[in-house]
Amino acid sequence: MSTHSSHPLSTAARHLSAVDSLTTPIVCTATYTFASSDELRDHFEGRVRRHEYGRYGNPTVRAAEERLAALDGAGDAALFGSGMAAITSALFALSKKGDHVVITADGYRRTRSFVTNLLARFGVEHTVVAAGDAGAVAAAIDARTRVVLAESPTNPYLRVLDLPALAEAKKKFPRAKILIDATFATPENQKPLAQGADLVIHSCTKYLGGHNDLLAGVVSGDAGLVSVVREARDVLGGVLDPHAAYLLLRGLKTLSLRVARQNASALELARWLESQRAVERVYYPGLASHPDHDVAARLMSGFGGVVSFVLRADLEGTARALDQCRLAILAPSLGGVETLIEQPAIMSYYGLAPEERAALGIRDGLVRLSVGVEDVEEIRADLARVIEEVRRGL
Fold it and tell me: What pLDDT score was predicted for residue 20?
């Protein structure tokens, strides 16, 4: 039995309280020391909570994990070095050879590629179903299914899944876990865990960090389930650097302010775009024309800061139109304070042939707009340049 009583706080707590800092300090270390062999034994036998080695945890990272768990209404959260590290580690942790994964078609192509290619090489089968259709997703679940993975809203068409309906249908297969990538929603706009999801994943690179200056991902949910995913992280090594955790904590302080502004601006811009003759179709859950508007209105408190739309232009015409932007920046990613715009056909899907892009629903005139925090009238004026270029070609 340990007799060391001179350290009432864990090592992690001592690190974070030692300098009385208002902001969470960056604990930059790869390893941690032990005051005695008794403390070492206490750690391994669970009598004290502290850190041992950087791949297994860090006080700065842990502070961010606790904040994210609170935002999602989760028992615990595990942070990773990127959103993809979070998704792939969770899938590795929850599936094995002979198991089955259900994934929706509309979503991040790297996630879909991991399931349909890499995970398949390990003997995990999959079914790809239409996004936004909870009935179709539920119908694809069977006794072999261990994971149902969906984005909500999806990328790039912003389909919103009826989670309570899916959770109810899934009760026949209790071994299957529902994983929702809620990056586009953020905890400010939706709480998937309260609506039936087992785990929630965010690419913290996007809205949670909010400044386009970090890479991170998180898995939140029941503490027991998160511990299984964390164990996979400890083996696979996709850990988050404490500097990035510090930046993430900084970004989280303004999350509600940023998201509220982006929600309001995106809805205003979506309505305006829908009135433009040069725009064939607008995809935004806040519009009555969106196929999942009723579901989104019921499950979301805000509709997000991404607006997708199709211009009445071909591949080159759309590219020329986006080149007219002076405020919106041509760049991948989303969720930061800057307004970003991209043409998926020549950004995320550049290497694919036209017929391959068409098969994935990526049209030549498709544009994805990530609304920043700039004045909405300035963003609208910038988009007006895009619209005018398309109108000249009609």
Answer: 81
What 353-362 contacts at long range (C-beta under 8 Å, 24+ apart), as own/partner pairs, is 354/315, 360/105, 360/109, 361/105, 361/106, 361/157, 362/156
Is residue 102 a contact partner of residue 126, using CB atoms and an 8 Å limit? Answer: yes
Nearest to 282 by CA among 312, 244, 242: 312
The DSSP result for 95-143, as a single string, is: --TT-EEEEESSS-HHHHHIIIIIHHHTT-EEEEE-TT-HHHHHHT--T
Do the strands 125-129 and 145-151 form a parallel or antiparallel pair, or are they unpaired? unpaired
Residue 25: alpha-carbon gap to chain centroid: 25
On the CB side of 165, CA atoms within 13 Å amount to 14
Residues of the chain with CATH 3.40.640.10: 11-252
DSSP at 183: T
Residue entry with tokens 């999959």: 126
Q: What's the Cα-to-Cα distance from 89 to each of 39, 83, 111, 155, rounded to whole Å?
A: 31, 10, 12, 21
Say which CATH topology domain 255-393 has.
Aspartate Aminotransferase, domain 1 (3.90.1150)
Contact, 87 vs 113, CB < 8 A?
A: no
Which two structure tokens, joined as six digits, stand for 94? 């929850």
Comma-separated ranges of CATH 3.90.1150.10 domains in the chain = 255-393
Strands 199-203 and 177-181, sheet pairing: parallel
Angle at 220 between CA 217 and CA 226, to 5 degrees: 105
Mean pLDDT by 10 residues, the chain (394 residues): 39 57 91 88 86 90 97 98 98 97 92 94 95 92 97 96 96 96 98 98 98 98 98 96 98 98 98 98 98 98 98 97 98 97 90 81 94 98 98 88
For the annotated catalytic residues, the residue numbers are: 55, 108, 181, 206
CATH annotation of 11-252: 3.40.640.10
3-class SS at 199? strand
Q: Which residue has the tokens 């290497």?
A: 351
Distances (CA, A) of 185 to 45, 161, 198, 234: 40, 12, 17, 28
